[in-house]
Specification:
The complex is a heterodimer of chains A (about 450) and B (about 350). By secondary structure, chain A is of the alpha/beta class. Chain A is built from 14 helices and 16 strands. The chains are: A alpha/beta (about 450), B mainly alpha (about 350). Chains A and B meet through strand 14, strand 15, helix 13 and helix 14 of A and helix 1 of B.
């Protein structure tokens, strides 16, 4: 078919793909909003300190904060204008976060720092990492782990395989898909940078088979590059989860509690890879990103380039607004995304999509007792026994829960998706993990 | 902020399958055997099934009402229990047995433990064991000869199942000195006839419980369940494989490795047990390797009961006993976690 035998992992499920809303829609640039709310923390790691104060004028690309420590990345102005407020504001991850609010002056003036560098490939790996950090790049697939940290593996754990994750196994989302179709050269240029930083030759771009145009495009632009292969993966959720992706491509298993570098692999999302290129070649910090606005609850689904800090409600208004029976607003996809109670939160670096679901999708039956159908066990990509883990968590039997691998859960939601008794398995498991982490923190 | 949205833990979409749908598929898969039973044993087979189903559903509703619990008869699980219970009875049982059996299955074996999902043993099998212990004659005398049943050796004793004939004949052959010569030669010819009667055993026109005689119709239903991924191959195949191997090794009249394993697979309740009883979701193990051990264990017990026990049939007791081991099997067969290093 596509020249490769089906590569995949054991387990998984097939939620309806629902990519039809946006998969054929070219990426559109959304005009900058009147006001942006830029949270000082949009990544996993140490928070950042503000560098500006109320009343300051800023231009696009100006750095707004100072990272504290190594595992931290700054944020940048996404519009030009005046800082009108620095305050704790609602954040899509739940808690309120100190944020910088900028009133747009409409001039779209760029910072002097944003300038192309033609000789970026001559930089040393250290300098490249420093620039990636200062450009504020964090994993754009949704996890938002600082990218320069990922690109700094210790010497005793050499990387031999770089995997560019274009699987996009979350239903509905098409941001990575469109990025691969429309910015394929930039992704390849980003790969070249990562290859240089890590000194790695073997690179694999992994794409699920339901994106034939992206596969064709990426094969086209890498045809003359023997270090890069494009692999078509079986369409199955969660194919794009880091550990499952590595297993499918290299047949290596990341050890429990370990990281991809333990098996010589490094996984980067396609959007992040492109952001690395833009940061080095164009001097452009991460102040905007591609995001998919989709679902049955939005009038005009779109793939958009949105400025970081744009409020969800502005994005939704730009897409024609809500349909009447909308009842759920999700940041991310339907399997792992975070439900929002309000649209008054900003787009952040990890906002891969906004999904609007209607009442019909949201209504669920009350959970029934587990009937032991085994579906969660047979589909768990981590080979756990979700129903037993959920039971341990519900009854606060945390010691047993840990023995049965609760901390290995990647929270992909497959168990809950397939459960015929409609049990809230992942919710219980998540609660158990949270409690265990809390106890550990208290103990130490 | 003018609109508040619903929030919940992810995932936000769920599969459309649910418990009722699974039960309805099980019922659909049982229909060929029910139709076959009605064809082989007459309308009475259908009435017996209707009685057990009615008894199960009414008992479920009444018991749940009495316990002030939501009535869950719409999950169809009581109907499944009813049909399976009927399949384990001769078609000529007196009318009160299906009723008593249904009440026992639901009230004692299921609701007393907390209802669907909490019962330790298969309710239909528990009820069958109860009936067999309380009305042993009614549960084991098969007065109705199947339509088209042409096993001549069995026609002489139309009340016996092929398994009965086999067990008695084997007994005679093993202790030849105790019997008259013609009795021995009769037994020999009966066994030979059984060997020639695979076709009847496969299609189902032999004596037996009303839903267990046709391997073909059971396999038809099982194929649907496998296709729909409601049951997986592990329990039925490990069970059937174990029964076949052990029956071949120990089941013959002339020493080891002379047993008629095809006969043992086709006769009695093995097929029904393998695909519809042992695979009961609630009472079988969760883990993949646990399911294999479960099938092997049930297979060993079945053969032990059939060959050396007092009953000609051992399927239902073997599954009941293995049901009780499920919590242990689950505990000791945790799958290897992704990325977990195997112990040395």
């Amino acid at each position: 078919m596509l020249g490769f035998k089906e590569r995949t992992f054991h387990g998984g499920a097939h939620p309806p793909e629902a990519k039809k809303y946006t998969e054929k829609k070219p990426i559109e640039k959304m005009p900058a909003p009147e006001q942006v709310v830029i949270p000082l923390q949009q990544h996993i790691g140490a928070p950042t300190e503000p560098l500006v104060k109320v009343g300051d004028r800023v231009k696009i690309g100006d750095r707004l904060s100072e990272p504290k420590g190594f595992v931290s990345v700054p944020v940048h102005a996404s519009v030009s204008g005046k800082v009108v407020k620095i305050a704790e504001m609602p954040h899509p991850l739940g808690k309120k976060v100190l944020s910088i609010i900028i009133q747009n002056d409409g001039e779209d003036a760029f910072s002097e720092a944003v300038r192309p560098d033609e000789n970026y490939m001559d930089l040393s790996p250290e300098e490249m990492r420093k620039r990636i950090q200062m450009a504020g790049i964090a994993g754009m697939g949704g996890a938002t782990f600082p990218t320069h940290v990922k690109l700094s593996p210790p010497a005793e754990k050499p990387i031999d395989t770089l995997i560019i994750n274009g699987a996009e196994c979350e239903p509905y989302l098409t941001a990575d898909h469109r990025t691969m179709v429309e910015f394929s050269e930039e992704i390849v240029a980003g790969i070249k940078i990562i290859q240089k930083i890590l000194g790695v030759k073997r690179t694999i771009i992994a794409i699920e088979k339901n994106k034939p145009d992206a596969i064709k495009k990426m094969r086209g632009v890498t045809r003359n590059d023997s270090s890069i292969d494009v692999i078509a993966l079986k369409v199955k959720y969660p194919q794009g989860a880091e550990k499952q992706l590595i297993k499918a491509i290299t047949n290596r298993e990341v050890p429990t509690g370990g990281l991809p570098m333990d098996v010589g692999c490094l996984v980067q999302n396609v959007g992040t890879t492109r952001a690395i290129y833009e940061a080095l070649a164009r001097g452009k910090p991460l102040y905007e990103r591609v995001t998919t606005v989709t679902g049955p609850g939005i009038k005009e689904p779109k793939n958009l380039i949105v400025r970081i800090g744009t409020l969800f409600k502005d994005v939704i208004a730009y897409c024609g607004g809500y349909r009447e029976d909308v009842s759920k607003l999700i940041m991310g996809g339907p399997m792992m995304g975070l439900a929002q109670h309000t649209d008054d939160v900003p787009v952040i670096k990890g906002t891969s999509g906004l999904l609007l679901l209607t009442e019909k999708y949201v209504r669920v039956a009350d959970p029934m007792p587990c009937i032991g159908c085994n579906r969660c066990v047979d589909t768990c990509p981590m080979h756990l026994v979700p129903t037993t883990l959920a039971e341990f968590a519900d009854f606060k039997r945390y010691v047993e829960a840990e023995k049965w691998g609760i901390m290995d859960c990647i929270e992909c939601g497959t168990c809950t998706f397939v459960c015929p008794a409609k049990r809230h398995l992942l919710q219980s498991i998540r609660f158990g993990k949270y409690e265990i982490n809390l106890q550990k923190r208290k103990a130490s | 902020m003018d609109k508040l949205f619903r929030v919940s833990s992810s995932p936000h979409v769920l599969d459309r399958d649910n418990v009722s749908k699974i039960m309805i598929y099980v019922i659909l898969a049982l229909l060929p055997s029910l139709i076959g039973g009605t064809y082989f044993f007459g309308w009475r087979a259908l009435w017996v099934t209707a009685l057990t189903v009615l008894s199960c559903v009414v008992t479920e509703a009444v018991v749940q009402k009495m316990m002030n619990r939501p009535v869950t008869i719409t999950d169809w699980s009581a109907v499944v229990t009813g049909i399976l219970l009927a399949f384990n009875m001769p078609s000529n049982v007196p009318f009160y047995l299906p009723i008593v059996g249904g009440v026992f299955a639901i009230a004692i074996a299921k609701q007393a433990f907390g209802g669907l999902g909490f019962n330790p043993v298969n309710p239909a099998l528990a009820a069958r064991a109860f009936l067999l212990a309380s009305w042993p004659i009614d549960m084991t005398v098969f007065k109705v000869a199947p339509r088209g049943g042409t096993l001549s050796g069995i026609d002489a004793i139309t009340t016996a199942t092929p398994l009965n004939v086999m067990k008695q004949s084997l007994d005679i052959l093993k202790h030849q000195s105790n019997y008259a010569v013609e009795k021995v030669s009769q037994a020999q010819s009966a066994i030979l006839q059984l060997k020639e009667a695979y076709g009847h055993l496969f299609w189902g026109n032999v004596g037996g419980c009303l839903g267990e005689t046709s391997a073909f119709l059971i396999l038809l239903g099982a194929a649907l369940l496998m296709y729909k991924r409601i049951i997986d191959w592990r329990i039925p195949f490990s069970y059937l494989f174990t029964v076949a191997v052990l029956a071949w090794m120990f089941g013959g009249p002339s020493g080891l490795f002379s047993g008629d394993w095809i006969f043992h697979l086709l006769a009695g309740g093995v097929m029904l047990g393998a695909f519809f009883m042992a695979t009961d979701m609630v009472t079988s193990p969760l883990t993949p390797s646990g399911r294999i051990y479960f099938g092997v264990g049930a297979g060993i017990l079945t053969v032990i009961i059939r060959l050396w026990g007092g009953y000609p049939e051992g399927t239902s007791y073997s599954i009941l006993l293995m049901n009780l081991t499920v919590p242990l099997l689950n505990r000791y067969t945790r799958p290897r976690i992704f990325g977990e290093r195997r112990r040395k």
